[in-house]
Write a structure and sequence with these properties.
The protein has an 8-stranded mixed beta sheet. The longest helix is centred in the middle third of the chain and has 14 residues. It is of the alpha/beta class. Helix 5 links the parallel strand 4 and strand 5. It is globular. It contains 6 helices and 8 strands; from the N terminus they run H-E-H-E-H-E-H-E-H-E-E-E-E-H.
Length: 192
Amino acid sequence: MRVITGDYKGRKLETPEGWDIRPTSDKVKESIFNILMNDTYGAVFCDLFSGTGSLGIEALSRGAERCYFCDSSRESIRLTIHNLKHVGAEEKAVVLQGDYVRCLSRIREKVDIFLLDPPYRGGLYEKCLGQIDSLDLLAEMGIIVAEHDSRQELPEEIGSLVRVRDRRYGKTTLTLYRRKQDLELLTAEEEE
């Protein structure tokens, strides 16, 4: 697994030995950042369930200001820290170990883009989205990208969050969420 483009382009990232961590494929990672192309530079990211840190490191490589890397697994945190040091991105990273509730409660600023990639069968998507919404962590015009199994349908709405797009890539689907009030603003701007 390598960093696709940007400041750390081509740097090889350490990957897990077993199957406890499911890294995002390069094809899906490329698709995520094609979707976020105009929103990455200068943004604050949160790579929730970071695994190897690959998605957050890609964001930093493409000009993100800062990224929170969150995971409950000690092995994932070890891999993330190793990979951050390897590419030289430690100063732009905040690494938090713990479950998603604990990690999200420790973030003290608005996040522009959440990368949400929990274990597919853990039933965590709705809970994570609800927690992000209840803590009011998503910045104005922020985006949540949820990577999930294509057989799983995510809800249209959770609290103030609204599903705005689904993109399918074989067995993986990316579902994007925004805040209702931001979606209304974007719609009003398009109508003008």
